[in-house]
Every structure is written in structure tokens, then in C-alpha cells.
């Protein structure tokens, strides 16, 4: 960061126990991509890097320390743990007990709960967070509405998801999903000798970018603070403005919303 301008320094990410990357920047994207390549062999590295990066993004817009944070569909709790490391009062809400225990004991106070119907009063959370869950629900609008409901007026909502036409849209069957989800699953089973984890229409859904953007922009209870590619090193916001192309080029849409007072 030496020699960087004031605005750049302000935009720099603070990482609790890792290097600091400017967001967006090529170095950050390369670091995220490198850790992604190790997702299977070193999940701690991948999820730790991703969690630090996401919490950095939140911290640019809200105080994490002392805030009540809910992590919806947080899997085994990497993001919840990172929020707690930064002083947040964070809680994990995850419906799948296998995901919850996938890496040992989940964070204390974890709740088995569905994001469609959270056991939380209206306006309870300062920050409502969800990473890579929206493509796993068949009714993204209801899921988003529930996130908005539990967020305090003035609070922050962080949602990111991999859209269906992203090169990673088919998840482990990518990029063969471009030739059809069924064919991609068959190919995966032939190649790996086991069924793919995700089945379109069961636990993975064709969520696109345009309809979700139109939905959040039309809502009168949230302000869209940011709509951008989560991982791109440049043109992260510009890509999302181009209908058609954004469905292929965004990879993963990050929405940061403010609940209207
Ligand atoms: C790809 S994992 C993402 C885990 C973690 N948030 C991350 O970014 O690494 C998708 C998660 O969404 C959860 N999920 C699926 N349907 C859900 C729902 N209706 N409500 C809340 N979570 C859900 C799954 O159980 C799973 O843990």
C-alpha cells in the first residue's frame, strides 16, 4: 500500500491474520483464486481467506465490533467465526446439520434454521449476511425478504451468490452445465465415479442476475449500496450494468443493501 492515495488506502481491506488487499485489485483476485484452487485439499485456507475478505467488505460500510450479526446458511461457520474475531456478536443459522458439523463442532449458539423462516423478531440484526446461499433456494425473493425483515432499519444486508449462467454456475459440474444440467451431472458421475453434490431443481437453482437486481431495486424497504462482481479485479460494478453479458461475466453477484429507516 506504500505510495497509495488516500482514497485507495481508505478502500484497503483489513485482514485479521492474513495479507491486506485492496478491493478490487488484481492481487486480491489472484489470492482468492489461488485459495479457491485448494478448496478440496485445504478448505481451511480457502474458507478462511474468503471469510476474511467478505468481513473486510462489510467493515468498509459498517462497524462489525459490537454489532449483532446473523449469518444465514453459513455452513460450518467460517464467516460467523471471522465476525466474532473482529468483535461482532455473530450467530450462525444453518438448516442442514451435516453442513453444520462438516468441520467438527459449529460455533457456539449455532441455530438449525431455514432462511425462509428465521426464528428472529423483525429488525433484530445490525448486519444480515449470506454468502453463496441464494442459488441454493428455489424462491430467492422470499429468502431476501426474510433477510430484510430481520435487519434493523439502517442495518446492512450482504448477499452474494453464483448465478446459473456464471462459468461456475453448475458448481462441481461446471462448465458442462452450459450444455444442460442433466448432461453435466451424467458426465460428472462418469468421470468421478460418484454423483455430483448438486442437482438442478433440488438443491441448486437457476438464479439469474437481472431478475434479482430488478427485485432489489424495486423494493422500497432497501437501498442498494453496491451491486458488483464479488471477485473481479476491475470493472466489478460496470460488468453488472450490462444486461446479457453480466449473466456470463459477473461470476458471483455481490449485493450490499441498507435497510431503509
Ligand atoms: C454453498 S453453501 C455456502 C456456505 C457458506 N455460506 C459459504 O459461503 O461458504 C450453501 C449453504 O446454504 C444452505 N442453505 C440451503 N438452503 C437454505 C435455506 N433455505 N436457508 C438457509 N440456508 C440454506 C446450505 O445448507 C449450505 O450450507
From TrEMBL:
Database matches in Pfam families: Methyltransf_11
Coiled coil: none
Single GO MF annotation: S-adenosylmethionine-dependent methyltransferase activity
Classification via InterPro entries: Methyltransf_11 (IPR013216), SAM-dependent_MTases_sf (IPR029063)
Domain Methyltransferase type, first and last residues per copy: 70-159
Alphabetically ordered keywords of this record: Methyltransferase, Transferase
One GO term (biological process): methylation
Protein name, UniProt field: Class I SAM-dependent methyltransferase
Organism: Streptomyces coryli
Amino acid at each position: 500500500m506504500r505510495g497509495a492515495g488516500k482514497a485507495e488506502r481508505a478502500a484497503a481491506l483489513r485482514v485479521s491474520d492474513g495479507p491486506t488487499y485492496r478491493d478490487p485489485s488484481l492481487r486480491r483476485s489472484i489470492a482468492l483464486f489461488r485459495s479457491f484452487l485448494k478448496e478440496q485439499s485445504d478448505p481451511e485456507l480457502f474458507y478462511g481467506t474468503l471469510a476474511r475478505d467478505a468481513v473486510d467488505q462489510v467493515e468498509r460500510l459498517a462497524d462489525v465490533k459490537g454489532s449483532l450479526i446473523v449469518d444465514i446458511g453459513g455452513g460450518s461457520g467460517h464467516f460467523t467465526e471471522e465476525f466474532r474475531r473482529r468483535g461482532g456478536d455473530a450467530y450462525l443459522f444453518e438448516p442442514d446439520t451435516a453442513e453444520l458439523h462438516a468441520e467438527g463442532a459449529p460455533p457456539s449458539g449455532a441455530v438449525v434454521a431455514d432462511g425462509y423462516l428465521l426464528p428472529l423478531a423483525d429488525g433484530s440484526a445490525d448486519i444480515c449476511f449470506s454468502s453463496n446461499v441464494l442459488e441454493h433456494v428455489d424462491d430467492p425473493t422470499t429468502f431476501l425478504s426474510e433477510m430484510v425483515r430481520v435487519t434493523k432499519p439502517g442495518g446492512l444486508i450482504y448477499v452474494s451468490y453464483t448465478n446459473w449462467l456464471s462459468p461456475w454456475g453448475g458448481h462441481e459440474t461446471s462448465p458442462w452445465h452450459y450444455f444442460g444440467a442433466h448432461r453435466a451431472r451424467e458426465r460428472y458421475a462418469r468421470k468421478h465415479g460418484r454423483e455430483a453434490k448438486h442437482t438442478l431443481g433440488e438443491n441448486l437453482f437457476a438464479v439469474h442476475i437481472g431478475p434479482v437486481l430488478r427485485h432489489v431495486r424495486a423494493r422500497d424497504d432497501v437501498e442498494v449500496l453496491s451491486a458488483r462482481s464479488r471477485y473481479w479485479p476491475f470493472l466489478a460494478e460496470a460488468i453488472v450494468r450490462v444486461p446479457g453479458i453480466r449473466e456470463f461475466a459477473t461470476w458471483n453477484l455481490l449485493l450490499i443493501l441498507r435497510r431503509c429507516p
